């Protein structure tokens, strides 16, 4: 597994959750899926909830989650 527990973060109106899984689930945002694969995380499932979608907020939420 890439990580061992469920990770959650929030940035502005974007809430991002990643859970470990046996295989990668490529559903959802293609931008977020590409960033996850380029980071090297290969076994996860992600949920992206937002009130007002802004790509900058999504990227910042992802950076906040992985660091």
Care to describe what's here?
With 67 residues, the protein is an alpha+beta fold. It has one domain: Ribosomal Protein S5, domain 2 (2-Layer Sandwich), CATH 3.30.230.10. The chain is built from 2 helices and 3 strands. The chain has a 3-stranded antiparallel β-sheet. It is globular. The model has no long low-confidence stretch (mean pLDDT 87).
Principal-axes geometry comes out as: globular
Count every beta strand, where a strand is a DSSP E run of 2 or more residues. Answer: 3
State the name of the first-level CATH class.
Alpha Beta
CATH architecture label name: 2-Layer Sandwich
Low-confidence stretches: none
Helix/strand order: EEHEH
- What's the alpha carbon Rg, rounded to whole Å? 11 Å
Q: What is the overall number of helices? A: 2
Q: Estimate the helix proportion, in percent.
A: 25-40%
Mean pLDDT: 87
Question: Major sheet, described briefly?
Answer: 3 strands, antiparallel
Report how far apart the termini are. Answer: 17 Å
Q: Compute the number of structural domains.
A: 1
Trace the largest sheet across and list its strands.
1-2-3
Strand content: 25-35%
Present the secondary structure layout.
Elements: E1 7-11, E2 14-20, H1 30-39, E3 44-50, H2 55-66
Antiparallel strand pairs: 1-2, 2-3
Concise synopsis of the structure shown:
The chain has a single domain, classed as Ribosomal Protein S5, domain 2 (2-Layer Sandwich). It contains 2 helices and 3 strands.
Structural features:
single chain; 67 residues; alpha+beta; Ribosomal Protein S5, domain 2; 3-stranded antiparallel β-sheet; globular
């Amino acid at each position: 597994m890439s990580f061992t527990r469920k990770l959650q973060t929030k940035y502005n109106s974007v809430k991002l959750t990643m859970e470990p899984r046996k295989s990668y689930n490529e559903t959802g945002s293609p931008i977020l899926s590409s960033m996850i694969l380029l980071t090297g995380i290969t076994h996860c499932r992600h949920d992206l909830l937002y009130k007002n979608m802004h790509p900058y907020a999504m990227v910042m939420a992802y950076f906040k989650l992985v660091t």
